[in-house]
Amino acid sequence: MALKRLFSNAIRPSPDIPAVAQMAAITASHDVTPANRLPPLLYRHIAKHISALRNSRSQIGNTAVPNPFLYHRGAKRGESQITGKLTYHWIEPKISVRRQKLLLQRYSAEDLPPSPANPLNGRPVKWIDGTIVNWEGKVRVKSKKQGPYAGRKIMFKGHLDERARPQKMADRQERMDGMEKRIAEWRKNKAEEKVRSRPSLPF
Hints:
One of its GO terms (cellular component) is mitochondrial large ribosomal subunit. There is one protein chain. The chain is built from six helices and six strands, in the order ααβαβββαββαα. By secondary structure, it is of the alpha/beta class. The protein has a four-stranded mixed beta sheet, with helices on both faces. It has a two-stranded antiparallel ribbon with strand order 3-4. The chain is rod-shaped, with a radius of gyration of 38 Å. The chain starts with a helix and ends in a 7-residue tail after the last helix.
C-alpha cells in the first residue's frame, strides 16, 4: 500500500505520447519542484516576492528569491579599523533554525531550500504561471574547530597558577622527602623541652 501511494502521483506512460517526450517530461518533473508541493510558509514567501516584481512592472522570467533559510548581506556598514576591509550588515534568516528542522521532518529535503541543516542542493521551484524560481544565497560551511595552538608560533603561556605549578610541586616533593627526618627532630626537641621544664626539686 505504501508503494502504491508513493507512485500514485508519478507520471505514467501514455500511448499517445512518444517515449522520448515521456522521458523528457519525467526528467523535467524531477529537476524542479512544483509550487503546490512547497510548505505554506515557503509558498507565501515566493508569492510575496513575485507580487512585488509584478507591481514594479518588471518582466518575470527566471527569477531568484532570497533563500529564507540563510543569512544575507545587507547594506555596507563601513571599513574595519583593524583590517581596513569593508564590513556589512547581515540580515538574519526569515525562518528560524528550529522551524527549518521541523520542515525537514515533514517535507522532502529536495523540495526545500539548501541550508546548513539541509546538505542537499534545493531544486528550482516551478511557479503556477510557469516561472522558474531559484534560491538566492550561498551556504557557508563552518571551518573545523582548531585547538588553541593551531597556527601559533608561540605557545600559550597559560595562567599564573599553571606556570607556577611545576616549581610548587617540586618544593612540595622536596619537603615530603625530608619529612621523617624533620618529625624525628621535632620529637627530640619536644622531649628535651619537656625534660628542661621539670622542676629541680622533688616536691
